[in-house]
Write a structure and sequence with these properties.
about 120 residues
Amino acid sequence: MLVPQLVGLYLLIVGVIVLYRRKSIMPAVSQLAANRLMVVILALMELSAGLAIVLTYPAVSWDWMGIVAIVGWVLVIESIIYIAMPYARVQRFIRYFNKNEWYQAGGVVAVIAGAYLSAVGFGLV
């Protein structure tokens, strides 16, 4: 199954990197927030990916398809926030979440979800 393999490996890899390299990622995110064009480009890419996922897996459920749907909905909602909110509020939003605790929690959630989706995708569960 390609989708749980793809999303699972992505979450697993990014989750591990965020957990081990968050101190170098946090300044990059701060610099991103200072660049309006990059925020818009990122939001448009995120919206495209999120819509592709949500249109394929729209229903949130307690199986692997539901986890993929949640990832898609998070991408869509976050991208709409970045595009629709005034730029000053977007910067505050990014600053609020650009903290060590959020990276730790997000990294752990990504690793757990990624490991589960990878296991399902590769037939280990």
